[in-house]
Each structure stands twice: as C-alpha cells, then as structure tokens.
User: Fold this.
Amino acid sequence: MKNFSIAIDGPAGAGKSTVAKEIAKRLKFIYIDTGAMYRAFGLYYLKNNISLDNEEDVNKYVSQVTIEMENQAGENKLFLNQEDVTKEIRTEEASRGASKVSVYPMVREKMVELQQEMASKNNVVMDGRDIGTVVLPHATLKIYLTASVEVRAERRYKEQTEKGMDVNLDDIKKDIEERDYRDMHRETSPLKQASDAILVDTSSMNKDEVISEILKLCQDRGIEL
Ligand code: DC
Assistant:
C-alpha cells in the first residue's frame, strides 16, 4: 500500500514545526523535522572542531555521521552517532551550524536519501525547506506555510521574552530577513514554493485556524481524520 505524505515548507518562523507536529498527532502520522537533522549534522562538525567553511573538509567527514530519529513517549528524540542531541540542537550555535552545513550538496544528498527512506516506510508529515520540491515531489499534499516578516518577528519576540530572554524586536527582524535571504538564494535546493503546493499565509490566522484549514485539505486528498 502506498503511504501518505504531507510536505510542509516555508521560511523560518512561519510556525511549520508547531503545525506539522499537531497535524501528525491528529492523523497519527510520524512527524519528521528535517531542520533538526541539519542541526544535528552541523553539530557533528562543531563538536569535532572541523571548520564548516571549507566544503572539501566537510565532505571528508560526511560518511562518519549517522543521524537517527526515535519517538519516545510521544517526543521525537534525535541521535547523532548514537548520542542523544535533542536538546543540544536547539542552541543558537547549532542553528548557525545547520545554516552553514545545509548549503553543501553532499550533505543534502545524504539527508534527502534518509528522509525519502523514512517516508517510504511510514505515513509522514515532514517539514523543511525542500520537501515539496526535492524530497517528496509526489507528496499527497504540499503546503507552503508563510507569514509576513513583521508577524514572524513578533511571534519569535513573544516566544523568547516569555522564556525570560532579553531580546530586541529589530534584531530578530533583521535575523529573519537574513535567514530568508540565505535560504532562498543558496545554489542547492533553495527555498521556494513548489508549483503544486498550496500557499497558506498565517499572518492573520491563529494556530487553530491553520490546523483546521490543513486538515480540510488532507480530507480533500482522501486522508481520513
Ligand atoms: O527549520 P530550522 O531552523 O530547524 O532549520 C535549520 C537550518 O537547516 C536552516 O538554516 C535551514 C536548513 N534546512 C534546510 O536547508 N533544508 C531543510 N529541509 C530543513 C532545514
């Protein structure tokens, strides 16, 4: 039997992971956070003091890296060479590492292969930047989730101040604009809306509205709720 797959792409801060996680829970599909995989990959180089600026150096070690995902008590755990790095990948340093390592074709090839293998064995909701365009070109449903830079910056600002962090809204906005530029202008698999993806602009929608719109689209594609 053919598996169902839902691809959710979009820029940083659009709410992809929150939405993808919830959709996966409702449908009892497996949630695959591909950004987390690039973060873990970058972490390997940071931990081993290997520069991420030189493609040849990066390529030399690609075969040494193993990345596995496991769902433990409803929580996705990520293992880098058998070590649990679920928490560590959320640091700013890991985020910068992911952004650097994700430009290299050899790294992307390995990640895409792994992601396609996961989707061939399970019903999945996968979020990232190249899921609808490269990883799952035949996905059952493709969503391009976005929101204005202002709204994304405000959401992140709220999230971080609630955690007690001392942050500046203008700095966050600048950071988001820079990340958008990098993601959309890199040579290999730049972020773009697949021609058959449905655009969902969440600028003036709340989380529940986004979820119910996507669930409706799932039903239209024959996925039972
Ligand atoms: O979504 P995130 O912030 O966890 O992603 C981390 C980095 O990985 C980000 O710079 C974009 C990159 N990425 C990618 O190139 N392709 C994906 N499918 C997912 C993430």
